[in-house]
Design goal:
Length: 191
Amino acid sequence: YRHVFYMKTDRDGLVLVPPLQLDHEIDGNGGQWSPHIATDVNEYAHIVWYGNTVPESKPPYHLYYSKINPEGTQVLGPVKFLTSDYSSVPVIDPFPDLGLGTGSFENPRVAVTSSGKVHVVFWGEDTVPVPFNVIDVATIFYMQLDPDSGEVIKSPTLLTDIADYLDPVTGPPEIVAGPLDDLYVAWHRGS
């Protein structure tokens, strides 16, 4: 079982907040992966990751969010804000036009603007039947979360075109917020 942890140090590496396990309230015996962190202007840490609740490292995966105050207390989370199964949290089909089901969501990344808005990008993946074959298709999604509740306030939207399945997204995205609150997203493509 893999867990997600948070800690805080000063600029010289002196520990200010010792390691804190963030996924302690997640039921099941699956794993948690790929945490990503951003801070806001008030020095709150915003952390996203993905995980599952079954022993195998396979979908359905869930995306989680936690918020830590400057003193190191987990003030929110873990909040399951998106899932690739049919549960009570928002569910999206990454490729609705293809009618393939829910696929998988992985590698979330977070940025927080100076206004305190929490922005998340993540990788969506599914298989697509093509003549004489089945191929994997991956794309990048964007969404926005409420920083006080972890609830979705802007539903997931596609940032990349799934039509070009011969050159799929092959790596996780990155996102940063600029000084004027514009968002910058990067990823790589190709086999």
